[in-house]
């Protein structure tokens, strides 16, 4: 640890100076889509952690707010899209001086990791900017690329349409893919029809596929 007493801004400068010499290489690879290299959260921890201890600089996170929205992937699966509003207190262990950095983090996940990923993204980019670590490209929160279906506005009266239509469509799906397709085509053209298929289509097709497999067995 640095023996001479330094305030928080001097310590930030010292850490930034060392990171400017060593940098953080892009050792991680997102192979989805066109693919790209990126710096993961562990790369940031490994590079910054020893320098913080060396110079006596602490970084204390604080979550101000969290917002979660459920979306649908291009494959019809649920995705949880989380945004967190974070603050990070940079505190000098020498004199207690403090500077606060505010950062947002965003991430998507199909399970229970979206919040963790969003918090990691906020930390990572707060460090990149506070210590002026150069970075290129569009680094992802967790090395995954999600194809999100376009969000559609539900037309007025859709609830009644779905309630009246869904039982018959489920019955058609139980008879196989051809019956399901014919039943859907028979529905009158409307905005309700498109919204219904976006919401219920994946589950109906899965049920129809199961029926086809049972028929072929």
Topology:
Blueprint: H1 8-22, E1 28-30, E2 36-38, H2 41-55, E3 57-72, E4 78-92, E5 98-109, H3 114-130, H4 158-173, H5 177-186, H6 191-216
Antiparallel strand pairs: 1-2, 3-4, 4-5
Compact overview of the structure:
The protein is an alpha+beta fold. Helix content is 46%, strand content 23%.
Could you name the key traits of this structure?
single chain, alpha+beta, 217 residues, 2 domains, elongated, two-stranded antiparallel ribbon, 23% strand
Description of the molecule:
This protein is an alpha+beta fold and 217 residues long. It folds into 2 domains: 8-130, 2-Layer Sandwich (Enolase-like, domain 1); 158-216, no CATH class. It is built from 6 helices and 5 strands; from the N terminus they run αββαβββαααα. It has helices spanning 8-22, 41-55, 114-130, 158-173, 177-186, 191-216; strands at residues 28-30, 36-38, 57-72, 78-92, 98-109. The protein has a 3-stranded antiparallel β-sheet. A two-stranded antiparallel sheet has the order 1-2. A hairpin with a 5-residue loop joins β1 and β2 (36-38). α4 (158-173) runs antiparallel to α5 (177-186), α4 (158-173) packs parallel to α6 and α5 packs antiparallel against α6 (191-216). It is elongated, with a radius of gyration of 25 Å. It starts with 7 loop residues before the first helix and ends with a helix. The relative contact order is 0.13. Residues 136-140 have low confidence and may be disordered.
